[in-house]
Design a protein that fits this description.
mainly alpha; about 95% helix; about 0% strand
Length: about 150
């Protein structure tokens, strides 16, 4: 009869040890997952700021161009009464040039958005890979914990 309490106590000790090991594995995994998510969030925020800065820079350039065009037009209108044909030709040429500039700005912005999306995709893939590795390690460690006698 003396063996039964000892066996029960030994079994309880093993179960408690496995429970503690299991909780330790999960705590470590949760810490790794949280770290991956925080890194991804920080990277996403940095990328958002970078994209905003690029878009804002091209918007400022467009504003400068429009201010310069306004100054040129102010001068052109003053001289336009002397030669209306030249004013018309200048207006047409500047209209085409401004359209080209607008398309160039749109192209630049589209490229900036594309580059940003590519960087975010890479970051998301890295985070996903880190999460997969973490959970694969958890499964392996839990199998080891359960296999111990």
């Amino acid at each position: 009869m003396m063996d039964d309490p000892k066996k029960a106590q030994e079994l309880l000790g093993q179960i408690t040890g496995k429970a503690v090991e299991t909780m330790t594995v999960w705590a470590d995994a949760n810490q790794r997952v949280l770290r991956e998510l925080v890194e991804f969030g920080a990277t996403s925020a940095k990328e958002g700021v970078r994209l905003y800065a690029e878009l804002q820079q091209s918007a400022i350039e467009a504003l400068r161009d429009s201010q310069a065009a306004a100054l040129r037009w102010q001068t052109a209108w003053q001289d336009g009464g002397k030669d209306p044909v030249q004013l018309y030709q200048k207006a047409l040429a500047e209209g085409v040039e401004n359209a080209q500039k607008a398309f160039k700005i749109l192209e630049t912005q589209a490229q900036a958005v594309t580059r940003s999306a590519e960087r975010l995709q890479t970051s998301a893939e890295q985070a996903g890979k880190g999460l997969q590795e973490t959970y694969a390690a958890v499964v392996s460690k839990l199998k080891d914990v359960c296999a111990q006698n």
